[in-house]
Amino acid sequence: MKVLLYGYGLMGKKVAHQLREKDEFDLIGVVSYEFDEKAPEAMYSNLTEVQDCADVIIDFSHPNNLDDILAYAKKNKTKVVFATTGFSKEQLDKIEEASKEIAIFQSYNTSFGIQMVTKILRQVAKEFYDNGYDIEILEKHHNQKIDAPSGTAKLLYEVMEDEIQGTTPVYDRSSLHEKRKKEEIGIQALRGGTIFGEHEIMFAGLDEIIEIKHTALSKDVFVQGALAAAKALQDKEVGLFTLKTLY
After folding, report:
1. Which of these, 9, 80, 96, 245, is most buried using a 10 Å CB contact count?
2. How far apart are CA 206 and CA 152, in angstroms?
3. 151 annotated to a ligand binding site
4. Burial of 232 by CB count in 10 Å (0-12 exposed, 13-18 middle, 19+ buried)?
């Protein structure tokens, strides 16, 4: 499987290392607006420079590169794994539109553990809610993360929103001078230190609390997930896939 890697920062380098180690992948080039070290493969500043045709693009870069990626992918019928965070609503709409022509996986968290958490939530969230439990999401990340709440926290909310009709996300209660409403699901963000990523869903009922928690102990879990997504796209021609739909 011929791969173009977009982004050569910390995560991109980890992805490149894993791609080089696996026989089923052929890393044919790395794309980045700047390089702080030389890559063994062909190096490009954007995809317009690439003459070869890749089977898949794995993107760990920045939302600003979306148009460049989609233009190349649609022209060459290349599949795309978007593991970049911070896309705007307009950009997500572009991704959805492009998925009518090519196969795309888009997720803010590619780890297997989060995939399993979403499966658990689909099974239990509505039953907790129907039995009077309040639901809150808490996410923690390192102090360099720009967006808040995390894309993964939003994903976890969306999974429960699909199962429970009429829920409302609440991101900040400081301006609310009223008691909590049943249909609210709180989403809170903490930033500090070097936390790779923690996501906790709390179901608070009468005199008891149940918590589901995922903790990433290294960034390698996201690398493995991105490679697994690339392989899973091999037999997909078109469509937009997420952790909820690809596996």
Report:
1. 80
2. 28
3. yes
4. middle
CA dihedral 50, 55, 61, 67 (to 10 degrees): 70
Q: Is 167 annotated as a binding residue?
A: no
Quickly list H helices, the chain.
Answer: 10-21, 66-76, 89-98, 112-130, 151-163, 220-232
71 annotated to a ligand binding site: no
118 annotated binding-site participant: no
Catalytic residues: 141, 145
* 76, 115, 143, 157 from 200: Cα distances, Å: 40, 14, 18, 11
CB atoms within 10 A of CB 36: 8
**97-156, pLDDT tens digit by residue?**
999 999 999 987 888 899 899 999 999 999 999 999 999 999 999 998 888 999 899 989
User: What is the model's pLDDT at position 247?
Assistant: 61
Rounded to the nearest 10 degrees, what angle do helices 220-232 and 112-130 cross at?
90
Domains detected in the chain: 2-110+220-241 (3.40.50.720), 112-215 (3.30.360.10)
Residues in a beta bridge with 190 = 140
127 vs 196: which has the higher pLDDT: 127
- pLDDT tens string 22-67: 999 999 999 999 899 999 999 999 999 999 999 999 999 999 999 9
Write down the pTM of the prediction.
0.77
Residue 194 known to bind ligand: no
